[in-house]
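Checked the freezer inventory, then went back to the computational side. Two predictions to log before the end of the day. The first one is the construct we discussed on Monday; recording sequence and tokens without edits.
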Amino acid sequence: MSLLGNVLWIVFGGGLVICIEYLVGGLLLCLTIVGIPFGLQCFKLGFFALAPFGKQVYKTSSKPSPIQGVLNVVWIIFVGIWIALTHLLFAIGCAITIIGIPFAIQHMKIAEISLAPFGRETA
């Protein structure tokens, strides 16, 4: 069932477009030394956004490290809020129809990890 959901996500839910946007953003961030950690998070989000059905978001530890906290604050200020709002708008648009509700749920799951990706993993 998750395979069918992922295929429909790529075609109708915007999964391919979102993945390409994350990967391009990650490549641009990796051009600078300071942006490499943020670029790696964009790659993680891009691959997660390509096929989110059947995957879950987990915290890597119960107590995040101070470095993860600082990186999350910088991420939230510059890109996290905007990415999460984008996924929220996509979720609202998908939730208008009954068929789009599973896609809306996936957009909200991606918004959760895109708001503060440091210290979180997907499986």
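The second is the one RB wanted added to the comparison set:
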Amino acid sequence: MVDDEVRALTERALDVARSVGASYADARYLAEDSESIDVENGRVEGVSRGSDAGIGVRVLVDGAWGFAGTALMDPKEIERVAGLAVEIARSSRPLLRTPVVLADEQPVEAFWETPIEEDPFAVSLDEKIDLLLKASAELQSVQGLTIAQSSMDFWRRHSFLATSEGARIEQIITQSGAGIVALAVGDREVQQRSFPNSFRGHFACKGYEHIRSLDLAENAARIAEEAVALHKAPECPSGRTTIVLDPNQLCLQVHESVGHPLELDRVLGMEAAYAGTSFVKPDDRGSLRYGSDQITITCDSTLPGALGSYGYDDEGVPSRREVLIENGVFQRFLSSRETAPVIGETRSNGTMRADGWGVIPLIRMPNINLEPGTSSLEEMIGTTDDGIFMSTNISWSIDDKRTNFQFGTEIAWEIKKGTLGRMLRNPNYAGKTVEFWSSCDALGGKDEWKVYGTPNCGKGQPAQVARVAHGTSPGRFRDVQVGVRG
């Protein structure tokens, strides 16, 4: 639990902000511990540990936002920062086109904590390194492999939010992840295979039990063998064909072409600095055909164990599950207390988060999930006469409206007459968001539905990094442009 000093400092921040003119104020304390471990070719390449703590104060003055923060836990400093936030709000008021109006939210006093079985920060460094060394050794046991990498990352965020409306919310969020990468260097190119996913592996709001469940060493030899074999595989052919995507690739497709375009600050042009705006318009609700009838996508920050789960967002709005796209038709944006009223909605859906105490919260996707269908990977492949099965993202590109995209995967296999055939190297597919989702004719069922955590979602200026997740099952898409990854 946060101590009395932190509570007193946040209360003082609110008192000062209101006394000098703020109509609304919140003070958000955040302390984060982190640990990262990297092993390469049987050697420990790095161990980093960090801790950071501070308080950020956000205020509304005459409908304009102001924000300031500090790492100094001192009453005089907190008073200065609260006054500075009000000054900034007053300075920005002349540039404001429309005064900010906040959607109503019932203030609560609450405590929420990630359920964990084993505290990752209590597990010895020797035990963690030993697991990574074993995985590295298994990778290196495969002849022809050049580089064997294994890694772990852990975070614990302890926050306390106090608002002038009366909310007092404390949260402790623990996140863990790990992964392995096999690199085989050839005469002209490098081939890579990752497990359980690329970009440092698979992450979850769980404790060290998550790391044990990944079975890194048990899967290492297979991954290394695939990396080596890719050098002898033919390149992915070019043309239009049917593709089947593994859940670990489809989760990134959801992230880039659904999650980001439905962030309402992008839609309204309030956030465009880091990765553009959106092709979706407020009037599209209830009418835009985003995909086929197979496509139902939800926003669910309550999903147990998922990396984007929490009890309350950084505006004190409780987590919930909501349908964004239902049977292919777009229904709802990701919103904040500021943006929801702009499009006539009465309440935020609780997606405002900041990656530290020193930055203002932004709309950030939590867990954006493609709901399962009724097919299976075996059935999709078995009923495909000619196509390609692709797995594990290695590269992506999408325009600033989130319309035109191309994705490269680490590996693929051809599908011929309902059977998986030759391995293919350097696979790539491209398309347009609505056309692509409209081409989906089958999704795997609940037993093949998996949630993958993504620890590196970037947005904002200055840039912020969010940890999010996506639940998906395998999916089949017809008449998609494929080719060789550049």
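For RB: Residues 239-484 form one domain. The radius of gyration is 24 Å. Let me know if you want it refolded.
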